[in-house]
Design a protein that fits this description.
11 helices, 18 strands
C-alpha cells in the first residue's frame, strides 16, 4: 500500500501486509495462474489488470502456500514505475539490457528484431505456425523476448553476483537474496525415491531453487503459446545455460535435464524415451476422459430457448464482458477484453453447448462446454464455462446477463 495505494487484494488485511518480497515469491494466497485471463491476449493495461485483482478469492492463507502468480509480478513492475517514474520496460532497458549489450531483447512482440522465431504448436495432429500473442499488459511478468546470446550475458551477470565485464548491475547482497528460498515447496514422493533423490525445493525471488547431486540448482522455466524455455544456473560450478524452443513439445525439458546431467557428471539416462512414454500416457488418459464425457451426453434433447434468446452480453466483475450472438443459425461467443477469443457454440444437450474455438485462438484448448442457466422467468441469467486446461482458470469467471 506504500507504493500502490490503489492496489487491493480480496482480503484488506493482506493488502495492508503485502510487501514487495511477497510479490515475487508466490505466497500471497492466490492459486497458481489465478487471474491470468486478465493479461493473456487481453487489451488491459497493467493498472487496469491490477484494479481487478481485488475480485480474486484466495485459496490459502497469506504466506502459507505456494501459488505461482504472474499478476504479482505485474504489480512489482508497477512499483518500479512508481518509484522511478519510468515504465518497467524503460527502466529495465536502461539499467540492465543496455549495459549488458542485450540489443536483441525487447518488451513487446511489436518491435522484435529481424530473424525472430515464430511460435508453433500441434493442433488436430499437425503442426501449425501461430501468431505472436499480445501479452503487453503483463510486461514485467511475461513480455520479454530474447535470444540465447543475450540471455548468456544475463546468466554471466547472475553467476558474477551482479557484475558483468567490470560493470556492476546489482550488488552481491541482492544476488544472495535472490537465490534464497522464501517459500518451501513440498517434495513429491516419487522425487524422494528417484536416483538421486531431491532433498529440497524452494521459491526464491524470481527463481526456483533445489538440489541435484549435491549441487544447488537455481532455475526458472518460461512458456507462452508455441514457445517454451529454461534458464538454469549451477553456481558452485560457475555454470549456466538457457534453452529456447519455438514449439510446445517436451524437448525443452529433455534438454534441460540432459545438460544438467552433463555438467554434474551424472550417469546416462534416456530422457527422450521417458518423455515419449509420458506423452503417450497423457494422450491415452485424455482419450479415456473424452469417452467418459461422451457417455454422459443425453441424446435427443433440445435447447430450452430459441437460439436468439441466448444472445446477449454477460458481464463478469473480474474479467469484463462476454457476448453471445446468433450468427448464421449458430451461437458465437466473444470475450471482449481478448479480441482473439472467439468460439462457435454447438449444441451438446439441454442448455449446454460445446466450445469450438476459432483459429484466432492460439492456445490448444481441449474440448470445453458452456452451460446457460435459466431464471424463473424463462430467460438466461448466467454463463457457466467449463474449459479444461492447465493455464487459464475459466471457472473463476461468473458472467451474468446484463440488462
Amino acid at each position: 500500500s506504500q507504493y500502490l495505494p490503489e492496489f487491493k487484494m480480496y482480503d484488506p488485511w493482506v493488502t495492508n501486509e503485502l510487501t514487495i518480497r511477497d510479490l515475487v515469491t508466490h505466497r500471497v494466497g492466490l492459486d497458481t495462474f489465478s487471474g491470468d485471463l486478465l493479461w493473456y491476449e487481453a487489451t488491459y493495461k497493467p493498472e487496469e489488470i491490477l484494479e481487478r485483482v481485488r475480485h480474486l478469492k484466495p485459496v490459502s492463507s497469506f504466506r502459507t502456500r505456494y501459488g505461482y502468480q504472474n499478476l504479482m509480478f505485474i504489480a512489482a513492475g508497477e512499483v518500479v514505475k512508481k518509484v522511478t517514474g519510468k515504465p518497467w520496460c524503460t527502466f529495465v532497458k536502461e539499467r540492465i539490457l543496455d549495459p549488458l549489450g542485450m540489443s536483441r531483447t525487447t518488451c513487446s512482440v511489436n518491435n522484435l528484431p529481424d530473424n525472430a522465431a515464430w511460435p508453433h504448436n500441434e493442433s488436430g495432429g499437425s503442426m501449425r505456425v501461430l501468431h505472436r500473442g499480445n501479452v503487453d499488459g503483463s510486461s514485467s511478468a511475461a513480455a520479454l523476448n530474447s535470444s540465447v546470446n543475450d540471455l548468456s550475458k544475463w546468466i554471466r551477470t547472475q553467476l558474477g553476483r551482479g557484475t558483468f565485464e567490470g560493470k556492476q548491475i546489482f550488488s552481491r547482497e541482492r544476488s544472495w537474496e535472490m537465490w534464497q528460498p522464501y517459500m518451501a515447496q513440498q517434495v513429491a514422493e516419487p522425487r524422494d525415491r528417484s536416483t538421486p533423490p531431491t532433498q529440497f525445493r524452494g521459491v526464491a525471488m524470481g527463481w526456483f531453487v533445489s538440489d541435484y547431486r549435491g549441487r544447488k540448482i537455481v532455475e526458472h522455466s518460461g512458456g507462452l503459446d508455441g514457445m517454451l524455455s529454461y534458464t538454469v544456473l549451477i553456481p558452485e560450478l560457475n555454470t549456466g545455460f538457457v534453452i529456447l524452443t519455438n514449439s510446445e513439445s517436451p524437448a525443452f525439458r529433455v534438454m534441460r535435464s540432459k545438460m544438467t546431467d552433463i555438467f554434474t557428471d551424472a550417469p546416462e539416462r534416456d530422457y527422450n524415451a521417458e518423455a515419449l512414454a509420458g506423452a503417450e500416457r497423457s494422450k491415452a488418459a485424455a482419450a479415456e476422459a473424452m469417452k467418459r464425457v461422451d457417455a454422459t451426453r443425453v441424446a435427443g434433447t433440445r435447447p430450452t430457448l430459441k437460439l436468439a434468446d441466448y444472445a446477449g452480453t454477460y458481464g463478469d466483475k473480474l474479467y469484463g464482458d462476454i457476448t453471445v450472438s446468433e450468427e448464421n443459425g449458430r451461437l458465437v461467443m466473444r470475450f471482449l477484453p481478448s479480441p482473439r477469443f472467439v468460439a462457435d457454440l454447438e449444441h451438446w444437450h439441454y442448455d449446454t453447448f460445446v466450445i469450438r474455438w476459432r483459429p484466432s485462438v492460439a492456445y490448444n484448448f481441449p474440448r470445453g462446454f458452456v452451460t446457460f442457466t435459466i431464471d424463473r422467468n424463462g430467460k438466461t441469467d448466467e454463463l457457466k464455462i467449463d474449459q479444461p486446461n492447465n493455464d487459464f482458470w475459466f471457472y473463476e469467471l461468473t458472467p451474468k446477463r446484463k440488462p
